[in-house]
Amino acid sequence: MNLSNFLRDDDLSREGFFELFELAAEVKRTPGKFRAALEGRTLAMIFQKPSTRTRVSFEAGMAQLGGHALYLNPRDLQLGRGETIPDMARVLSRYVDAAMARVFAQEDVETLAEAASVPVVNGLSDLLHPCQALADFFTLREKLNKLEGLRVCYVGDGNNVAHSLMLAGAILGADVAVACPEGYEPDADIVKRAGELGAAPSSPDSSRGLRITHRVAEAVSEANVVYTDVWASMGQEAEHEERLKIFKDYSVTPDLMRKAKKGALFMHCLPAHRGEEVVDEVIDSDASIVWDQAENRLHTEKALLLKLLGAA
């Protein structure tokens, strides 16, 4: 696999995903084998948006691989005081071996990668969350031992998490349905790209392929997996009260889970707003695999760093 950056889900081919899955499984199974794999290497972690899972998984991952991670928040950088992203990228490239950026605009992480001479990872942007989808599909492969033909129903806002599920699902052969209120559909360019990757839009009465719908009960009816995310993401706090009204029929409840296929799993990228997009009875149920998802961020990101830095 020839991977120089990981900015979008479609930076990986199907074979690339499975190569990372195999390495992540090995890292998870035998962590001691990789304890010094990145000894002397440093990862710069750039955070325009704070995060628990992204910071801890990357920082712990580098430490467990023998390397070091630097946490850089907006106050630590000169970006807010006039320095351009390309200038910052050129300087950081002289100091560190790789960079991970959690940003608002996808353009920012792409500009960073264009100017940097070290690998760059998209830790999240408003458009995409590729590290999350990588961990999600690794978790599903781990739990269900298959991905092709799997039916994933995402319920809620057509946001960055939905976009990455659509792209990665298309590459891996999983059918993805997005059930959302009118006006909160996924980005049209992402829908188009998912189609180009093989997720041709399905007919309205089909559960196969890529489906965008406003009818949540129908969307989950054949789902092996029901997935949700917060209704108001970071930067949308002012819309929270309005979104509570708009999304009230898109909460994942036990009743909704019963409409899915028998044995359906529940997923959430976290943090969860309990009582809004999901209720306690679902996220704490036996069907929930959210804690496995969260843990697998660590293992898949370790595998990603090993590949990007040529250590595996």
What does this structure look like?
This protein has 312 residues and is an alpha/beta fold. The protein is 41% helix and 13% strand. It is built from 12 helices and 9 strands. The strands form 2 sheets. A 5-stranded parallel sheet has the order 7-6-5-8-9. Strand 5 (151-155), helix 6 and strand 6 (175-179) form a beta-alpha-beta unit. Helix 5 (130-144) crosses helix 12 (290-308) and helix 6 (160-172) runs parallel beside helix 7 (188-196). The chain is globular. The chain starts with 13 loop residues before the first helix and ends with a helix. The model has no long low-confidence stretch (mean pLDDT 94).
Summarize the structure.
With 312 residues, the chain is of the alpha/beta class. The protein is built from twelve helices and nine strands.
Features:
312 residues; 41% helix; alpha/beta; 13% strand
Biggest sheet architecture: 5 strands, parallel
According to DSSP, the number of beta strands is 9
Strand content: 5-15%
**Order of strands in the sheet with most strands:** 7-6-5-8-9
- Rg calculated over all Cα atoms: 19 Å
Number of helices: 12
Low-confidence stretches: none
Helix content: 40-55%
| H and E string | HEHEHEHEHEHEHEHEHHEHH
| Average pLDDT number | 94
Shape: globular
Structural class by helix and strand composition? alpha/beta
Q: Distance N terminus to C terminus?
A: 11 Å
